[in-house]
Structure formats: C-alpha cells, structure tokens
Amino acid sequence: MQDLTQQRCHHHKFREAVARCPECRRFFCRECITEHADKVLCASCLGKNLRTGAERSHRFQWFFRLGHFFMGVMILYILFYYFAQILLAFPSSFHEGTLWQSGWWTGS
Ligand SMILES: [Zn+2]
Ligand SMILES: [Zn+2]
C-alpha cells in the first residue's frame, strides 16, 4: 500500500493527492476529485457513472413503455375475447328459446 501523501495528482503532476478514486484507482488533488452520492470519484469516473446511470434509466423507461404496451394489448384482447363470448352466447340462447317455444314437448 502506497502512502497517500507521497502521491501526486493524476492530472497535476506537482500537486499533492488528497484522495484516491475507487473506480480507476488513481490519485487526485482536491480540484480533480468530486463527491457524488456519498462516493468520492474523479471527474472522468463521475462522468462515466452519470452516463451509465442515464442509459440504465433510459433502458428502464423503454422496458416500462413496452410493458404498458403489452398490458394494453392484453386488456384489449381480454375485452374482445369476452365480447366475442357474449356474441357467441346470444344465438345459442336464442335458438334454445325458439326450440322451447316451438313446443318440442308436443311431439312435432
Ligand atoms: Zn476515477
Ligand atoms: Zn488535480
């Protein structure tokens, strides 16, 4: 393990390093290191993190939208299915009604 006080900033060769980036394992001065979400990162790693986070949320949004689309299709499918079932149920009951009205019990 190297001593932090003997390290120099990755960007500023003559400046003393104050922190080490946990992502790229390089040393940085007070100016080059930034705090983000309770994590101390260098500027380049912070940009990388923000970009991947944005991509992740974008991908999630796309997935969410796809889920909504399929949910809508499913609801439409179920509605049409029941609508078709109702339509199919009408003629059979009507037929049964006429059969009973025609008087099958009279023998004709
Ligand atoms: Zn870094
Ligand atoms: Zn620096």
Please give a structural write-up:
With 108 residues, the protein is mainly alpha-helical. It has one helix and four strands. The radius of gyration is 36 Å and the shape is rod-shaped. The structure holds zinc ion (2 copies). Residues 21, 23-24, 26, 41-42, 44-45 line the site of one zinc ion (ZN).
In short:
The protein has 108 residues and is mostly helical. Helices cover 55% and strands 11% of the residues.
What keyword list fits this structure?
binds zinc ion, 1 helix, 55% helix, two-stranded antiparallel ribbon, mainly alpha
Radius of gyration: 36 Å
Overall 3D shape: rod-shaped
Mean pLDDT: 82
The count of helical stretches stands at 1
SS elements, strand count: 4
Helix content: 40-55%
Pattern of helices and strands: EEEEH
Sheet-strand content, in percent, reads 5-15%
Termini separation: 105 Å
Cofactors, ions, other ligands:
zinc ion
Secondary-structure class? mainly alpha
Low-confidence stretches: none
Largest sheet: 2 strands, antiparallel
What strand order characterises the main sheet?
1-2
Topology of helices and strands:
Blueprint: E1 19-20, E2 27-28, E3 33-36, E4 39-42, H1 43-101
Antiparallel strand pairs: 1-2, 3-4
The structure holds zinc ion (ZN) (2 copies).
